[in-house]
Design brief:
This protein is mostly beta strands. It has one helix and nine strands; from the N terminus they run E-E-E-E-E-E-E-H-E-E. Strand 8 and strand 9 form a beta hairpin.
Length: about 100
Amino acid sequence: MKKDRARIVVDGRTYFAAGVLPVCNGMCCVMISTNRGLELPGGKVELFDKDLFDTAQRETVEETNGLCKPQKNNVLQEIYDWRFKYALFVVKVDKSQ
């Protein structure tokens, strides 16, 4: 494991990335890539991220060009997969987001 790589520790487990599964009107929203298929917004932890939700929110705003900004108080579920060192936040979003 690289020592200079940003990480966040939750309950004694190390995570390097986080993402969001946006849910709007009961439907999951995904991004479509012409060469990679369906994707969820998310990415690597940066040194300045306060927590994994901060990482997920920042990456979602970046990858949706600001169209979707998930809020922590709208988190429906948190999924921490320590095997892949990835956290996923299922978040309710407005149509306007």
